[in-house]
Design brief:
about 300 residues, alpha/beta
Length: about 300
């Protein structure tokens, strides 16, 4: 088994397909497929399950990937130390619910990078897709919340997919509204106060279950509700329609401006916000730095 073969398998996982990985590696698809089969034959394990829907890592492949990433990273460090080679691009991907603090931490870590090259990805996406991204190694970590209502369902799904949840902070639910909203001067807001205004919620696609909702108290009845797919649209509707959404209350005015404010919501509910990773994977240095920055930001809350 060669270092190059390990790099091939890492690229396949990153791309999610052998065809796309072959394009990025500038080799033919048959050559890449043969390289994978050679490794599988040598190790005696099946690394990928192949189906009409594409490829996914097997349990043995997940463990192999963890070791391969460590070996490749250590080899690059040795080449840099003893051969004067530049480290390859820093690679990192995170999938997250629509949280301003997650973007803020991403910005801060990138700003502190001492490198000329990197390839990084941040996905603000649906709850189920966050779990799938981390399960399939498309993202090293995912950021989501648990509460009394969704805990049993989400925790069961994480366990089935060999994912581990680590607590970041506990949040009291807040309502995000525009700074010109009729309720903007209130010290605290109730659901009854919000009843006549449009409720804005992130749509969850085919997994549109209350358990996957980003908004706490998702089962509460709403006379008016608008589903959106991105945070910019949601913020525009908060301002244009005097709408509201319910979330952690953590805003970053440097990134979001002063047009949106958060007001505490009267409820006994709590949000346990945290990050998930595959139990068999090791975090890259960038991932470690990102989590440290997340903790630094939320420690201010």
């Amino acid at each position: 088994m060669t270092l190059q073969q390990m790099k091939y398998i890492i690229m396949i996982v990153k791309c999610g397909s052998i065809t796309e990985a072959a394009k990025r590696l500038f080799i033919s698809q048959p050559s890449l497929s043969n390289a994978v089969r050679d490794v599988e034959a040598e190790t005696g394990i099946e690394i990928f399950q192949r189906s009409v829907k594409g490829i996914t890592l097997t349990s043995g492949g997940t463990e192999f990937l963890s070791y391969a990433r460590q070996i490749v990273e250590q080899a690059e460090l040795m080449e840099q130390r003893y051969m004067g080679k530049k480290l390859s691009k820093k690679l990192f991907s995170v999938s997250t619910q629509h949280y301003a603090f997650a973007v803020n931490a991403f910005v801060n870590v990138i700003s502190a990078l001492d490198t000329d090259e990197y390839e990084l990805t941040i996905r603000e996406t649906r709850t189920y897709d966050i779990i799938e991204d981390v399960k399939n190694f498309h993202s090293q970590i995912g950021i989501l919340y648990l509460n009394d209502f969704n805990n049993r369902v989400i925790t069961k799904l994480l366990k089935e997919n060999h994912l581990v949840f680590t607590h970041l902070f506990t949040a009291d639910p807040h309502a995000f509204i525009s700074s010109s909203h009729p309720l903007a001067g209130h010290r605290i807001i109730t659901l009854d106060d919000l009843e006549k205004y449009p409720c804005l919620a992130f749509e969850q696609g085919e997994y549109n279950s209350f358990y996957f909702s980003e908004e706490i108290l998702s089962t509460a009845p709403h006379k008016k509700i608008i589903h959106v797919s991105d945070r910019a649209t949601l913020f525009n509707l908060l301002i244009g329609l005097n709408g509201y959404t319910i979330c952690t209350g953590v805003l970053n005015h440097n990134l979001n401006g002063d047009n949106i404010i958060s007001v505490p919501l009267e409820t006994d509910e709590k949000m346990n916000v945290g990050w998930i990773k595959n139990e068999k994977s090791d975090l890259s240095q960038f991932a470690v730095s990102y989590i440290e920055e997340l903790r630094r930001l939320v420690d201010k809350i």
